[in-house]
Specification:
The two termini are 44 Å apart. The chain has a single domain, classed as Orthogonal Bundle (MetI-like fold), CATH 1.10.3720.10. The protein has a two-stranded parallel ribbon. Helices cover 72% and strands 1% of the residues. It has 22 helices and 2 strands. Belongs to the binding-protein-dependent transport system permease family.
Length: 554
């Protein structure tokens, strides 16, 4: 009970209350009491839903999320196999680098892709600038790592004896994959796909830069209505639409996942690994696909970002952009240096990751239970969907909600908006669902009879948790810590509302530099983005070490 009460209380205070307060205020006239039902006016629903623009935006949101998810899963499965089921030199380094795009600021990635695709860029002749294809490519760039790490972390722990038995009976490698491996991976694939869909549906900076007004989404429309037009009523209606979309996705994902879940035989992470051999057709195909994605889709934009950070506007090579990181600059509009912002980002991400892993781990433990009663199983499915809602709510909504509710939280004479606590809390709210989806597939694969046997032998609930669930959960915690820390480092939407000028994080500084005129500010922004990428890669490599996967990676 306590394991469920703590995360429910945390999310009720720091997610439900701020979001509900903002949504409710959008449905009352100016000056009316927000929580007085008699003052509510729902005419905004009919007004917003009657606009053709609204349905065009909803359609584009679903289309880009669907295509982005399908491509991410199709490309990510070979990557999960190569990076988590096979051994090769420098594997840990490649794993860390693959994750870097996931946490880069969306605005920076949008600029990087735009510079590649715009006229005069390396791919300018393809005519992809400002197209649907450009947006989808950037979304796959972000979410490839979600599929690789979520599915790969689970795949690495599957007992290979079922695959070996099928192969010994004459099944071809492709048949083994189709009939044995993919069914076993189905829960992890469903978890990864639901995460990717929500990330694609709520993408903000990338869509705003690459799509403009032509390819707006619900997320960008909420931002525009809130910040530029102060139209809280329309923003509230769009937030409700976004919540409905998220609820449907989570319900479908839960049904797809639970219909294929079963207790699986797990093994030590290294038991099923084998050395990559390009003479095997399956290894060759997976390696080629993974190599093309890592080099072409992930590496090229990042390399282009690095090259541009070392050049002036005229193309001359220079270190000046990196020299500028140590001073705010008279035309940058900043009160802190990039290095100071980087230190703030690290401190904030450390607190946010600790909160996310603590709360997310408790959620995963609760939701992974298998009650015997139908009502108990239904209750857990509802809880699972509730705990995933932060992924589908606009980060702008969360940040704005904090501003209007945390001046006197719970009636206390304390203005949290002036403290440094809200930024890591907001980042933790965003990271918690990712922690849950990283840990949950492993816990759900534990045969409940093992827990029952341990309890029958006299083990206390705490000892059963420590001896049965604990060792398996610990394997996934390295991934969870890395993801939570990385997401916090790159979080921008809510942080941009809450961070003060003297405590700005690195993504906020990059965004502000890009928004300022002048080639010097733009070059400094690119150099700062490279610094963020290096920090992220270092964090993910450390997470791999914490995961205990040392042999053969370096």
């Amino acid at each position: 009970m306590a394991a469920a009460a703590v995360p429910l209380g945390f999310l009720a205070l720091f997610f439900v209350w701020p979001v509900a307060s903002l949504v409710v205020r959008g449905f009352v006239p100016d000056g009316a009491h927000a929580w007085n039902p008699a003052a509510w006016d729902f005419s905004g629903f009919s007004e917003v839903l009657a606009r053709s623009r609204t349905w065009r935006i909803v359609g584009l949101t679903i289309a880009q999320a669907t295509v982005g998810t399908l491509l991410s899963v199709l490309l990510g499965l070979p990557g999960a196999y190569v990076l988590y089921r096979c051994r090769f030199p420098l594997r840990g380094l490649v794993r860390g680098l693959v994750t870097v795009p996931f946490v880069l600021p969306t605005v920076v990635v949008g600029v990087a892709f735009r510079s590649l695709l715009a006229e005069g860029g390396p791919l300018g002749g393809l005519g992809l600038d400002g197209t649907f294809a450009a947006i989808v490519a950037a979304l796959v760039f972000f979410n490839y790592a979600v599929v690789v790490r979520t599915v790969g972390g689970f795949w690495a722990q599957l007992d290979p004896r079922a695959e070996e038995a099928a192969a010994a009976l004459g099944a071809s490698p492709w048949r083994v994959l189709r009939t044995v491996t993919l069914p076993a991976l189905a829960p992890a694939i469903a978890s990864a796909a639901s995460l990717v869909f929500l990330f694609c549906a709520t993408a903000f900076g990338t869509v705003l830069i690459l799509g403009g007004n032509r390819f707006g989404t619900i997320e960008t429309e909420i931002y525009l209505r809130t910040t530029q037009f102060l139209d809280l009523r329309s923003a509230a209606v769009l937030s409700v639409l976004q919540l409905v979309l998220v609820a449907v996705v989570l319900w479908v994902s839960s049904r797809a996942r639970t219909s294929r879940e079963r207790a699986l035989a797990l093994a030590a992470p290294r038991r099923g690994e084998r050395t990559v051999r390009l003479t095997r057709p399956a290894d060759l195909a997976a390696t080629v696909v993974t190599g093309l994605v890592v080099v072409g889709l992930l590496g090229w934009p990042m390399a282009h970002l690095l090259v541009r950070s070392l050049q002036t506007a005229g193309g001359a090579w220079t270190w000046q952009n990196y020299v500028n990181l140590g001073a705010p600059g008279p035309r940058s509009g900043l009160t802190v240096t990039v290095w100071e912002a980087a230190a703030t980002s690290l401190r904030t991400a450390l607190v946010a990751a600790a909160l996310a892993v603590l709360v997310g781990g408790m959620i995963a433990f609760v939701v992974s239970r298998r009650p015997r009663s139908g009502s108990g199983r239904h209750a857990l499915r509802v809880l699972d969907a509730v705990f995933m809602l932060p992924l589908g709510v606009s980060a702008v909504t969360v940040g704005f909600g904090f501003l209007i509710t945390m001046d006197r939280p719970l009636g206390l004479d304390l203005d949290l908006r002036t403290s440094g606590l809200l930024v890591p809390v907001a980042q933790a709210v965003v990271a918690i669902p990712i922690v849950v989806r990283t840990v949950l597939p492993v816990l759900r694969a534990v045969d409940p009879r093992m827990r029952e046997a341990a309890a029958a032998l006299g083990g206390s609930p705490w000892r059963v948790l420590r001896t049965v669930d604990g060792p398996l959960m610990a394997r996934a915690l390295g991934l969870a810590v890395g993801f939570a820390f990385a997401v916090s480092l790159g979080e921008f939407g809510a942080t941009s509302f809450l961070a003060r000028p003297d405590t700005a994080t690195l993504p906020v500084v990059v965004f502000r530099l890009i928004g300022r005129p002048g080639a010097e500010n733009y070059g400094t922004a690119l150099a700062a983005a490279v610094v963020l990428a290096v920090l992220t890669a270092s964090v993910m490599l450390m997470a791999e070490r914490l995961r205990g996967d040392r042999h053969g990676d370096v």
